[in-house]
Amino acid sequence: MTYGKDGLGSVRIDRKQTKMIAHRGLSGVETENTLPSFRRAARGSYYGIETDIHVTSDGRFAVFHDDTTKRMTDGKTEYTLENTDYATLRSLSLPDKWGHNGEGETFIPLLEEYIDACRSGDKYCVLELKNRFEEKDLISAVEVIRGTGYLDRLIFISFSDFNCITMRRLLPEAKVQFLTTEEINGELIAFLKKERLDLDIEYKRLTKENIALLHSENIEVNCWTVDDKKAAEDLAEWGVDYITSNILE
Known about the structure:
Blueprint: E1 19-22, H1 35-42, E2 48-55, E3 61-63, H2 86-90, H3 111-120, E4 124-129, H4 135-148, E5 154-158, H5 161-170, E6 175-180, H6 186-195, E7 198-202, H7 208-216, E8 221-224, H8 229-238, E9 242-245
Parallel strand pairs: 1-2, 1-9, 2-4, 4-5, 5-6, 6-7, 7-8, 8-9
Antiparallel strand pairs: 2-3
Helix pairs in contact: 1-3, 4-5
């Protein structure tokens, strides 16, 4: 890794007016979805920091990407997030895969701790709601976020249409982005317009033309996960609204 002058370890790009989002924190340098990863991103010029949450068996919101702990504990455990209490998850030590986590905080954080890390750098929280939530859990998540006083700095994203539609109903003015790997077509655009959602899509689906089409329908466009400098600069040139990356800034 070649470190930049700011010491972050990120790779600078010509991003035009595009807003950069740190994927699972600055996960190209720190262990993904940990407090060191979020704090390092918070010290950078990112617009926002992305993460993922699951609902634990005791109703807490655990910050973690995968459905089980197997990958992130090098196969030593295989707890399913939704079937495990938070104290058990908190007790796990995630490997320091990059050798940069000096804080000794490679554990699974809570939603509130992630928000505090974003707040430390005045960054937007880009919060992926993993899997399909129950409506009561979406309501609870909103209350937890409201309790932090940071609700107006949240962007909600999800592959679940139920999560997106319910969050739009609960928070009519919030930014909500529907995640997809599918092609951009009339059916997708009609769905986004009907439910007043923006789009978060695998970046290889985007072209200059379909970004312009989405913008003509007043749909903002986020894309993931862009770690190739040229691809990111092309997307910025085409006017994409957000780029989500592990390492680019």
